[in-house]
Amino acid sequence: MSRATLRAEDVTLAYGHTTVVHGVSLSVDEGGVGLIGESGSGKTTLARALLGLLKPRSGRIVYGSRELPAMGRGERARFRGAVQPVFQDGSEALDPRMRIGASVAEALTAHHRMDRAAREARIAELLADVGLDPALAARRPHQLSGGQRQRAVIARALAVRPEVLVLDEPTSALDVTVQARILDLLQRLREEHGLGYLLITHNLAVVDRLCRTSHVLYAGRVVETGATRDLLTRPAHPYTLALRDAVPRIGVPTAVPAAVTARPAGTGAPAVADRGCPFRHRCPLAVDRCHAEPPVLRDAGGGRRVACHRAEEVLSGALRQ
Amino acid sequence: MTLMRVRDLEVRIGGRTISSVPSLDLGPGECVAIVGESGSGKTTALLATLGLVEGARVSGAVTVCDTDVLTAGPRRLRAIRGARIALVMQSPQAALNPAMRLGTLMRRALARHGVKGPAAKARAADAVAAVLLDEGVLRRYPHQVSGGQAQRFAIALAIALGAEVVVADEPTSALDVTVQAEVVAVLRRLREERGLAVLIVSHDLALVSSIADRVIVMKDGRVVESGPAAAIFAAPADPYTRELVAAVPELPPPYDPASPPASPPASPPASPSASPPASPPRTGGAP
After folding, report:
1. Cα A226 to Cα A215: distance, rounded to the nearest angstrom
2. Which pLDDT band, with edges at 50, 70 and 90, does A265 fall under?
3. Of A11, A290, B5, B284, which is most buried, counting CB atoms within 10 Å of its CB?
4. pLDDT tens digit string along A47-89?
5. Which residues in chain B are contacts of A144 at CB distance < 8 A?
6. Which residues pair with A62 in a beta bridge?
7. Nearest CA to CA, how far is A138 from chain B (Å)?
8. What is the 3-state secondary structure (H, E, C) of chain B?
């Protein structure tokens, strides 16, 4: 069965006069799609747009064959059920005064009519599905551990039988062993329910586990996209390489990547890309051309697309120490 | 010389031990990490080294810069806190007063320890430079700087006061990986150049392995394993440590043109003596 896909087509998003996402296109499929970037890269804003919570300044958000703003009321309700968010922190996503069962049921009753017995049974089934003891339905969020709360949030998202989950840093608030179990859970649920995942994170290893393709976002632009494994083992963009090299690894002394230290002192946010490459101020490979001409996303072979004038050199190892 | 010495530290609430550390020594320029998950007692142990545990029975001995923290009075504790041992917290922006410019914050902290006027100014400038920040940050409010800058400022505050020991509770968990790398680099620099001793608490084993000399692994309030970081990560002895190490999400190894994985590109490596054929893709250099 082919499911309706969720797509962003050349989407530009802005808050007031500040444009935070510039012409991004992506498509969420069953293989899982990763959106990688640092704070302020625009990844969460893009997720909000894909959830229908933010209207694009230009471009389109399309679900199936329909564009989001053009949907009628019924269609929109179906969309809201079909595309479900899972946010970072389960303690904030759940109403502290509501019991877990009620939180999950709220989603159920919003989308389906059912009697009490059927509802209770469905809640138990959902909690069991995410590996929670159904007895926890009677607890409140503060009585659960962080991992249990995140499972409850996932159960609530599954309650309405969604087709796509938009996961925004689903594991970064959790302990490492709990993280690993939540990732296992997400992998199993995807296989069992045939879900599409859009995974937003700055953790490359998480993307590697769950997403077949990935997009790297810098200053609101996709700077590199391709098969995740390929992209991580052999980055074509200096920013992807910097992100990769900054990940601490056991037994490997972390060298601070050149692109990290090259950041001009005193600037936290990426520089405004008036002209030239948005990454040029942090890029160890920047040449005159990078200051004058913004690179466009172009084919780099093997399904890879990259926005860098010197991608071929990066691929051939120009930045390797 | 030992800057921090912990012996038989035990923190108990209502007869239950919530954190116990038999032994911990920290010398100048060293870094010891306490690793564990939520509820392991790692943060309690860290707070105990500052004499900040309240509402619990604390026994054992904690000596920081020749002061017995557990028996010292409030005045004595105030004298060493900040000036000899400083705390860096997880969320830097929450730790800094939002209504105060960073420069004001630093000036007040220095004044409290008797450093005023031009001397304070010089100290502030030196400390900010030591953490690779621009002096301009002193004119900013906490919300006007990035998370990484705020965290480096928190470290600068410790440096300005002349702290010899920094205790840091998950100092990088709230930060992006690249920013995390910056903070780690700054800490490493300060250890090498100024002999700063660092006690770090974290659940991020990969981070810890990249910065700590020695590691203490805690679970349910007890130390399950401790020793040199390299040895522990190379061959974790305790099952729980093994579980922690295994849980660290792993990145695929970087592509190495000298020994390409399964399907190599058309051109063979330049030097024929380089490798036996069909070598496995795992060639990172680390044993």
Report:
1. 7
2. very low
3. A11
4. 999 999 999 999 999 998 888 877 888 888 888 889 999 987 7
5. none
6. A7, A67
7. 23
8. CCCEEEEEEEEEECCEEEEEEEEEEECCCCEEEEECCCCCCHHHHHHHCCCCCCCCEEEEEEEECCEECCCCCHHHHHHHECCCEEEECCCHHHHCCCCCCHHHHHHHHHHHCCCCHHHHHHHHHHHHHHCCCCHHHHHCCHHHCCHHHHHHHHHHHHHHCCCCEEEEECCCCCCCHHHHHHHHHHHHHHHHHHCCEEEEEECCHHHHHHHCCEEEEEECCEEEEEEEHHHHHHCCCCHHHHHHHHHCCCCCCCCCCCCCCCCCCCCCCCCCCCCCCCCCCCCCCCC
Q: Computed over its alpha carbons, how large is the radius of gyration of chain B?
A: 22
User: What is the rounded CA–CA span in Å between residue A281 and residue A291?
Assistant: 9
Q: Is the pLDDT of residue A187 over 90?
A: yes
When CB atoms are compared, the residue of B204, B230, B243 closest to A177 is B243
Cα-to-chain-centroid distance, residue B142: 21
Q: Which residue of B has its CA nearest to A246?
A: B178
Alpha-helical regions (H) of chain A: 43-50, 73-82, 90-93, 100-111, 116-129, 146-158, 176-193, 204-210, 228-233, 238-246, 258-261, 288-292, 311-315
CB atoms B134 and A38 under 8 Å: no
Helix (H) or strand (E) holding A198: strand A196-201
What backbone phi and psi angles, to 5 degrees, belong to B205? -65, -35
Is A317 in Cβ contact with B134 (below 8 Å)?
Answer: no
Answer for the pair A247, B177: CB distance below 8 angstroms, yes or no: yes
Residue of A nearest to B172 (CA): A248
Q: Which residues does chain A have within 8 Å of residue B255's beta carbon, measured at their own beta carbons?
A: 233-234
- Would the pLDDT of B21 be above 90? yes
Q: Which residues of A touch B209 (CB under 8 A)?
A: 248-252
Three-state secondary-structure class, residue A69: coil
Write A42-47 long-range contacts (CB < 8 A, 24+): A42/A13, A42/A217, A42/A219, A42/A220, A43/A200, A43/A217, A44/A168, A44/A200, A45/A13, A45/A15, A45/A20, A45/A21, A46/A8, A46/A11, A46/A13, A46/A21, A46/A200, A46/A217, A47/A85, A47/A166, A47/A168, A47/A198, A47/A200
Q: Out of A216-230, A252-266, A270-284, B269-283, give the one with best mean pLDDT.
A: A216-230
Q: B182 vs A261: CB contact, 8 Å cut-off? A: yes
Q: How distant is the Cα of A166 from the closest Cα of chain B, in angstroms?
A: 20
Of B145, B176, B249, the CB nearest to A206: B249
Radius of gyration of chain A from Cα atoms? 21
Measured distance CA(B227)–CA(A225) in Å, rounded: 42
pTM above 0.90, yes or no: no
Mention every residue, 6+ apart, whose C-beta is less than 8 A from residue B106. B120, B124, B127, B138, B156, B157, B160
